[in-house]
Amino acid sequence: MPMPWTYRHSHREWRAFLDYAKDQMSLPSDNNTYTAIQAVLMTFRRRLTPQQALDFANILPTVPRAIFVEGWRLDEPRLPFGTREELTQEVKDLRPHHNLTPDNAIEATAYALWRLVRHEDLARVLKRIGDDAIAYWHVEVSDPRDLEQRIV
Fold first, then answer.
1. Which of 5, 42, 89, 149 has an alpha carbon within 20 to 30 A of 137's alpha carbon?
2. CA angle 56, 129, 87 (to 5 degrees)
3. How many Cα neighbours within 13 Å face the side chain of 143?
4. pLDDT tens figures, 28-52
5. Distance between CA 49 and CA 45 in Å, rounded?
């Protein structure tokens, strides 16, 4: 069996993911973008069962997968999904004194994710989690081709 593409090209894949998100958020640095991405992934993870989280992690590119599971404690209480405003505020609350995370951080991270993963896999996993997960990762675009998976 050959090495999975995401492992062989993890640096290129991460660079593309980071650049897509950074561009969408109009952030000045990779560090700011990393903080926003980390917060978006952590906020989503807090609403999942361990099995749902593992199913989601399995379709992520290598580095976002590592960020998604980093520091995860299985004994953390599962939180309900809230409004987009509440979820966005939770994202912005990560490292509040060093955080430039914009209001569109969830959508920008979702945009980057859709561009790098197989849409069938992401849609299948989100459907199993439920409508709130689908809404969390939804991106509004005028041209659906903007979200087509890119080969990096």
1. 5
2. 85
3. 3
4. 999 999 999 999 999 999 999 999 9
5. 8
Residue with tokens 């490292």: 95
Closest alpha carbon to 19 in 85, 68, 63: 63
The confidence score (pLDDT) of residue 40 equals 98
CA 51 to chain centre: 17
Other C-beta atoms closer than 10 Å to the C-beta of 61 total: 23
- The overall average pLDDT reported for the chain is 93
With pLDDT > 90 as the criterion, what percentage of the chain qualifies? 81
Give the separation between CA 59 and CA 127, rounded to whole angstroms: 13
Please report, for residues 22, 36, 43, 76, 80, the alpha-carbon distance to residue 29 in angstroms, rounded to integers and kept in the order given: 8, 11, 21, 31, 32
CA distance 139 to 106: 9
Task: Look at residue 107 and give its three-state secondary structure.
Answer: helix
pLDDT, tens only, 66-90: 999 999 999 999 999 999 999 999 9
Residue 68, H or E segment: helix 62-69
Q: Which of 3, 135, 117 is nearest to 60 (CA)?
A: 117
Beta-carbon neighbour count of residue 67 at 10 Å?
22
